[in-house]
Amino acid sequence: MKRFLLTLFVLTAAFCAAAQVNEMKLDVRRPGAEIASTMYGIFIEDINFAADGGLYAELIKNRSFEFPNNRLQGWSVSGRLEVREDGPFGRNPHYVRLCWPGHDQKHTVMENDGYFGIGLKKGEQYRFSVWARVPENIGAGKLRVELIDRDSMSEVQAHASAEILVDSPEWKKYEVVLTSGLTDPEATLRLFLASPVTVDVEHVSLFPVDTWMGHENGLRKDLAQALYDLDPGLFRFPGGCIVEGTDLDTRYNWKNSVGPVENRPLNENRWQHTFTHRFFPDYFQSYGLGFYEYFLLAEEIGAEPLPVVSCGLACQFQNNTMDAHQPVDELDCYIQDALDLIDFANGGTETEWGRLRAEMGHPEPFGLKYIAIGNEQWGPEYPERLEPFVKAVRKAYPEILIVGSSGPNSEGEQFDYLWPEMKRLGADLVDEHFYRPEKWFLSQGARYDSYDRKGPAVFAGEYACHGEGRKWNHFGASLLEAAFMTTIERNADIVRMATYAPLFAHVEGWQWRPDQIWFDNLRSFRSCSWHVQRLYTRYKGTHTLKLTDMEGVNVTGAEGQNGLFASSVYDAANGRIYVKIINVSDDAQPVSLTFDGLKKKETLKGVETVSYHSDDIYAENTLDEPERIVPVTSSFDFEGRVMDVTVSPKTFMVYVLQK
Ligand code: AHR
After folding, report:
1. How far is the CA of 190 from the centre of ligand 1 (A)?
2. Which of 273, 317, 433 to mutate to test the pocket of ligand 1 (most atoms within 8 A of CB)?
3. Please, are residues 375 and 307 in contact by the beta-carbon 8 Å criterion?
4. Cα separation, 326 vs 340, whole angstroms
5. What is the pLDDT of residue 19?
6. Contact 40, 501 (CB under 8 A)
7. What is the phi/psi pair of residue 22, to 5°?
């Protein structure tokens, strides 16, 4: 009897331990809504030294001597020199006069450490350029430029050097290409006055020759490559709060970001001021990566541009009085800026701004389709400003789709007020922002399932899982982003765009994390969140497919669904079906997926599976281990009408199938 009871107990225990099978069904017969080509995109804002000091490949900080607190900030100087302000570039008037120190054994020299040092690679070429003149017109002057390793123990610190003969009393651009003798993430540029003749220097610049697509004034290749590899369909720029500015004077003024780089005026970067706990008093915007470079990059990576313009509201987090903002009846120049930006992107070469675009090298229009008016705005002060913009854009460019804001929160009073307002004003899309903890992401698997289908479409414009007490790019956060993205995918009829944020961060210069791509001066790595985004772009498909549990309920991590989130799409380009299942639970979950809608005797065959998993959910990719946690693709030996699989705990699975 005892033995019998024991056997019964063991059997019962085994039965209870065997996890319940999660039965689901997928209607493979009727593809649903079309998935917008813009669905998964990127958003770049110059936060965390993302642009200056990051993607923008300029290696010299304060190249035009315009940093306002100290015109020589970022430079160390010795000898006889002075900063003057009647230079050749009206909007960047300062330059440096290098004078002979009066003794053969003394030197006039200036050095620049770039952004956290200058990153150089052995054997790579770097283009040094400087605008210069000999003001006294008493013969040619000489400059010697060196790339140095200040910490070097060898006899000479310089591992590359060249001389430049400045032979004109008129301002001229001089260029020389240096080949670095060392790999050095923190090198210094040294510039000697090398003859007893006064030389004026302005816009001192150093770029790798090998930039993205080989453009001069170009972009850092590895970082642009990470964007290209993501295959984004949308590219939002330039902010974020940077659009608004700490005050209106320092809002992003796109017109200052185009034309010759030497004459693009410096702007404050609002991220210099925002956080005193990670404070970077030397963070400015050179506008070197401006709107031309942005449109060009968007084209090169195949993403639709989505520019954001100021609606006349300075950052509302930083200003709580109305006099910080542009009065509603004085918005004309802001509205004109928006219209002119569309002209810059799309106008014929006979228009003012279209002509400038052509002069900059792109006579063909960029084919802009969208514009966002305002960033993360709220309160009645927003709709009342948005309204005249909408009227003006509709009148001049009825084909352009307008993106409005739902404020800084994913729900709540402002959100509830703004959505109907956006509908009233006829915005085409509404931008939602949510930087939220794990429990929020876990609760949002059905977020868009019941959204109003008659209103504007959704742009999930800024989002990331900010782990509670764990605000970094760990795998667990990315897993919850993957889970959340099932509601985006499932509701592709209403969600047309989504962009994780922020995009980039310098490991020494960040203000905000998590971020999608991290870098130092020479290296970069793609976070787990990047890999999740990539799985969604790689298996984007063209149309939704209905995937539910057996009761017809969406699989959204709801009670009784055992921590599973799921969605599926069809890809008309190759006839494949992509099933995404995310198991956020601690247990392996058996799943039995029945394919509805197959003809008699028809089956689906497995093509491949992709598994994204980490045993340690708080682990992350790093500069030293950039590929610690990457998706693993395997062949998928399956054929049938019911797919029985087990999804490991804390795993994002993609199953690729075809008829
Ligand atoms: O992405 C960082 C900031 O978050 C953005 O600038 C702003 O829109 C949001 O508050």
Report:
1. 37
2. 433
3. no
4. 19
5. 73
6. no
7. -90, 105
| Closest among 579, 636, 641, 569 to 604, alpha carbons compared | 641
Close Cβ partners of 78 (under 8 Å, ≥ 6 residues apart): 107, 108, 109
Does the beta carbon of 141 sit less than 6 angstroms from any atom of ligand 1? no
Please report, as a single letter, which amino acid is at residue 497: M
Residue type, 537: T
> In this structure, which topology does domain 75-208 adopt according to CATH?
Jelly Rolls (2.60.120)
Q: Answer yes or no: is the C-beta of 462 below 6 A from any ligand 1 atom.
A: yes
DSSP 112-144: E-BTTBEEE-TT-EEEEEEEEE-TT-SS-EEEE
Name the 3-class secondary structure at 530: helix
Q: What are the residue numbers of the active site?
A: 376
DSSP run (H or E) holding 144 = strand 141-148
Query: In the chain, which stretches have pLDDT less than 70?
Result: 1-18
Q: Which of 617, 463, 453, 596 is nearest to 528 (CA)?
A: 617
* Amino acid found at 181: G
**pTM, two decimal places:** 0.96
Range list for CATH 2.60.120.260 in the chain: 75-208
Contact present, 331 and 310 (Cβ < 8 Å): no
Q: Buried b vs exposed e over 433-460: b needs ≥16 C-beta within 10 Å?
A: bbbbbbebbbebbbbbeebeeeebbbbb
CA 112, CA 545: separation in Å to the nearest integer?
A: 56
Average predicted confidence (pLDDT) for the chain: 96
Q: Is residue 224 helix, strand or coil?
A: helix
CA dihedral (360, 361, 363, 366) positive or negative = negative
Q: How far apart are CA 464 and CA 34, in angstroms?
A: 25
**What per-residue confidence (pLDDT) applies to 18?**
59
Round to whole Å and give the CA distance between 135 and 131: 12
Is the beta carbon of 46 within 6 A of some atom in ligand 1? no
Residue 543 to residue 572: CA distance in whole angstroms: 8
Which of 182, 113, 115, 190 shows the shortest CA–CA distance to 153? 182
Residue closest by Cα to atom 7 of ligand 1: 240
In angstroms, the CA 494 to CA 430 distance is 11
* Range list for CATH 3.20.20.80 in the chain: 40-57+219-427
Q: Could you tell me the distance, in angstroms and rounded to a whole number, from the CA of residue 603 to the centre of ligand 1?
A: 47
For 40-57+219-427, CATH number? Answer: 3.20.20.80
Structure-derived torsion over alpha carbons of residues 612, 615, 618, 623, reported in degrees to the nearest 10: -70
Q: How is residue 89 annotated by DSSP?
A: -
- Tell me, using a 6 A CB cutoff, whether residue 505 lines ligand 1: no
**How many whole angstroms from 446 Cα to the centroid of ligand 1?**
24
Strand partners, 463: 434, 500
Non-local CB neighbours of 364 within 8 Å, separated by 6+ positions: none
Six token digits for residue 464: 């990331």
